[in-house]
Write a structure and sequence with these properties.
TLC-dom; Lag1/Lac1-like; mainly alpha; 59% helix; single chain; transmembrane; membrane
């Protein structure tokens, strides 16, 4: 009896420990999903008292909008930036890299216009199928696609850093965000709104020209193999590949400050790249387009809700968060379960002679590919359920009477941005 007694508190501690872990995640300022909803305690009263002179003693001094960038985003010289991958941070260096193929293309175009331009394969999609009409050109996979993807990794590095450094961070300072960590997070999420807004729209436009329009899943498999790809679909697919590879590099190189759920995000990016690569290789771009739409459209509202919270627009943020949960549930669960159901149940719509591993014919769907397709989508779904659970917990506590955020900050121990400090002294 004496040996069994200690086991009971151990069991209670395990249950308590699980609850504590969930609570820590929910209020963890460094978690990529819940962190943005852990905001600062307001340092200025909502209705600050007025002094007899009529001046507001608690009013924040107006900030000048500074366009200076931190030292990590300054070039150390092109060669050094290339050697250390610093060009991922420095727009000036990535612009120089981008300019080389453009200049070579222009030079060939104007001086050797009678010959095919070899640099077109870097800047534009390649592999057009001969004889396809100009009003509906079709393309095949090509090894040159790898060069195209690599080039647009640099494009996305340039675009990302330019927008975050020269547009979004100054806007955040103008709004009144001073902490360096919040400036970075706001810029990251603002860029995500721009990227996912554009590519969700592009993905829907691409799908509108396919037989799979609005998740008619049987056409993932009918008429397989879909090796002759529409130009819009191929461009969309390869650009998405470039973006996710660039985002993985951003994480690995520490361009974004790592969250505590760093490995969750690394796993998410690796599984995403796995899905992109395999679906492109085995001619399943129709299903890839569908998965992209479900992820991108919901990510717009996730990033939008985060930005509203950083801006301390509490009521708007709450409404946006509720809308996010609705969109997230439909896109990331209902539609993804529909895709998973199709993989498991409609795979056999592929005619038997094409359910083999025969790459010369563009046929790759051996029976074991059913699992190869199903497993990574299911893995993503497990991760989505965990994140959904966290979101519902936040919403429950909001409805129960708490704000979306508590009184802890993701940068409470971090000093003001040096630029912000300098500006406040000048004021």
């Amino acid at each position: 009896m004496s040996a069994a007694a200690p086991n009971k508190p151990n069991g209670r501690r395990r249950a308590s420990s699980m609850a504590e872990r969930l609570d820590r995640i929910e209020h963890d300022p460094n978690h990529h999903l819940t962190g943005p909803f852990v905001s600062d305690t307001p340092t200025v009263p909502a209705f600050p008292p007025q002094d007899p002179t009529g001046k507001n003693k608690h009013a924040k001094p107006k900030q000048k909008v500074a366009f200076a960038v931190d030292e990590n985003s300054r070039s150390a010289g092109l060669w050094e930036d290339l050697r250390t991958m610093r060009w991922m941070r420095v727009p000036a260096s990535s612009a120089k890299i981008l300019g080389v193929p453009i200049l070579l293309w222009l030079n060939w175009h104007f001086l050797s216009s009678h010959e095919p331009n070899p640099f077109s394969r870097v800047l534009f999609i390649s592999g057009r199928i001969a004889g396809t009409p100009d009003d509906d050109p079709r393309y095949r996979k090509s090894y040159w696609d790898l060069l195209f993807v690599a080039y647009y990794v640099v494009v996305f590095a340039f675009v990302r850093q330019s927008i975050t450094l020269y547009i979004l961070r100054p806007f955040a300072r103008w709004w009144g965000i001073r902490k360096e960590a919040k400036l970075d997070r706001f810029a990251e999420q603002g860029y995500a709104i721009i990227y996912f807004g554009f590519f969700a729209s592009l993905g829907i436009y691409v799908m509108s020209g396919l037989p799979t329009w609005w998740f008619r899943t049987e056409y993932f498999w009918l008429d397989y193999p879909h090796w002759d790809i529409k130009g819009g679909l191929k461009s969309y697919y390869l650009l998405q590949s470039s973006y996710w590879l660039q985002q993985l590099l951003v994480m690995v190189l520490g361009i974004e400050k790592p969250r505590k759920d760093f490995w969750e995000l690394v796993a998410h990016h690796i599984v995403t790249l796995w899905l992109i690569g395999w679906s492109y290789l085995v001619n399943l771009t129709f299903i890839g387009n569908a998965v992209f739409i479900t992820m991108d459209f919901s990510d717009i509202w996730l990033s939008f809700s985060k930005c509203l919270n950083y801006m301390q627009l509490d009521r708007t943020s709450t409404v946006s968060f509720i809308w996010l949960i609705c969109i997230w549930t439909y896109m990331r669960h209902w539609l993804n379960w529909k895709i998973l159901w199709s993989v498991w149940n409609e795979f056999d719509l592929v005619v038997p002679e094409n359910r083999h591993w025969d790459p010369p014919r563009g046929v790759w769907l051996a029976p074991w590919l059913r699992y190869q397709i199903f497993i990574p989508i299911a893995m993503l779904q497990v991760l989505m359920f965990f994140w959904s659970f966290l979101m519902w917990r936040i919403l429950y506590r909001t409805i129960a009477g708490n704000a979306l955020a508590d009184d802890r900050s993701d940068d409470e121990d971090e000093p003001d941005s040096p630029i912000a400090e300098k500006l406040s002294k000048e004021d």
